[in-house]
Amino acid sequence: MLKNFWYALEFGHAVERRPRKVRCLGQDFVLWRRRDGQVAVLSDLCVHRGGALSMGTLAGEDRIACPYHGWEYEPDGTCVKIPANPPGRGIPKKARVDAYPSVERYGLVWAFLGDLPEERRPPMPHFPEHDDPAFRAVYWETTVEANYERTMENVVDAAHTPFVHGTAFGNPDRPEIPDFEVTQDEWQAEADILLSPPPPKGLWGLLRSGVRPEHVVVTNGWYLPNIVKLHVRLPFGDLILYDHNIPLTQGRTQVKIVGYRNFFTGRWADGNALKRIGRIFEQDRPVVESQRPELLPFDLSAELHIRSDALQVAYRRRREQLIKDGWWVGGDDVVTGDVPRRQATVIPSPARRENPELARAWVHKTRGTGAESEEEQP
Ligand code: FES
Ligand SMILES: [Fe+2]
Questions:
Q1: Which domains does the chain have, with CATH numbers?
Q2: Of the residues 50, 67, 83, 262, which has the fewest C-beta atoms closer than 10 A?
């Protein structure tokens, strides 16, 4: 799992005033909508005794009060009230939790999970269809018992479609993938892939015979850290899916899809669009949940790659570089789960790097950059 990226954590319509727990990178976060409409994103770990702030309530203007002893935190993570202290007693400087930059875009609430200063943060992907009135969006989600890199690679993998999805958008009689070229930069890669269209049934049956093309062009690609774009050019319009593979933990993924279409753009067709996404996804689910090893190997040679796997290979090489750069968040950083732990680490937030003195004062430890933790002695 990679830190130092913007992650879409929740659909905007699901975030209200009421504090809400979300999970990502094996960590819990609390979200709430501030009075000005912006969304606050804090580590869900109270610095006092590790209570879950998401079980607390809002206090004052925009503070969150811990449900255990009522400590109150501002959206920037500073503690401003400790009810057990008699009046006049100061608040320790160490009383703060990590707060993460957030942005609401494309119907999603994004948080920057890392400590890089603004100018060094990787860009958020651009979804041009969102502001184009010709397109209509639907929002779909599910949870999968599989690693997010497995589910992500599944969606960039064109070669599985005729096998896993039958004639839904591939042709089992023509499974070969013509060679394609990958265009890539530091943060994304994409390719135009030619697929043989399925026999004229279902949606494809809408086409009069004779206009059935030899190939359909599917643009497929990834955006780091966890998004896949799938643009299917149907003869009657465009279907563009942005598939977010949110690593809840290493072995469990929440998939959130924003799907745009410029055909059948009435609200009446939303249910059908969602049903189609769901049906396709349920065909993928048993496959990705059965893959072994569960986690994507670090070593490129641990699995066999062929030409049609070029997008996945590009991803794995880029990921290798980011791991070398120290952006990897591993099993030791996962604080959610069934295993009792004596130490909870958090993803470092920008405030730690902005103020090194503060970083050293921080109670919750991080690994990697920022405030280095001492390993606990057994
Ligand atoms: S655990 Fe949060 S106030 Fe005590
Ligand atoms: Fe699939």
A1: 5-120 (2.102.10.10), 128-322 (3.90.380.10)
A2: 83
* Residue indicated by tokens 């809840």: 248
Instruction: Let me know the angle formed at the C-alpha of 301 by 299 and 306, rounded to the nearest 5 degrees.
Output: 130
- Give the model's confidence band at 15: pLDDT under 50 very low, under 70 low, under 90 confident, else very high: very high
Q: Which of 49, 80, 81, 94 most suits a substitution to test ligand 1, by most atoms within 8 Å of the C-beta?
A: 49
In one-letter notation, the amino acid at residue 315 is Y
Give, as one character, the DSSP assignment of residue 362.
-
Q: How confident is the model at residue 207 (pLDDT cuts 50, 70, 90)?
A: low
Atom nearest to 67 CA in ligand 1: 2
Pocket of ligand 1 (CB under 6 A): 46, 48-49, 51, 66, 68-69, 71
- pTM of the shown model: 0.94
**pLDDT at residue 373 in the model:** 38
Q: What is the side-by-side order of every strand in the sheet holding 27-33?
A: 20-24, 27-33, 39-43
Q: What is the pLDDT of residues 140-158, one digit of tens each?
A: 999 999 999 999 999 999 9
